[in-house]
Amino acid sequence: MLAIIVTSHGDFARGILQSAEMIFGKTAKVMAVTLAADESVEDLANHYQAAIDDMQPVDELLFLVDLWGGSPFNAASRVVAQHPDRYGLVAGLNLPMLIEALSIQNQTLTDVIPHLERAAQGGIRHLDLRTDTGDDDLL
To answer: Is the pLDDT of residue 97 over 80?
Structure first.
């Protein structure tokens, strides 16, 4: 089973994981790890290692981070670089992405990452009531 660390600046990761679990239910080997305002990238790397230790055994691990190039991303990329064949990293965390990750947690990292990229992009849509879509279920 793919282990997942959901990570962010502040409490976003905890909140989005809680929301996903309300919809999907609790799953094993999923943890939220957050970066507090007074913490460093090194502190966060230590939090990641503690989470990985808590989820053992971990064959494959996926980091879902809030922002490309931010501190959670930078700390996670260092961990992934140590195990590039077994660990992966996807930035741009959103709720559709996380729910999909939970639903395909039994698949391999190689299959999961491209699927999550599509799911996250597909979750970005807009409602335009100025045009008639013919979909009476919208309202």
So the answer is: yes
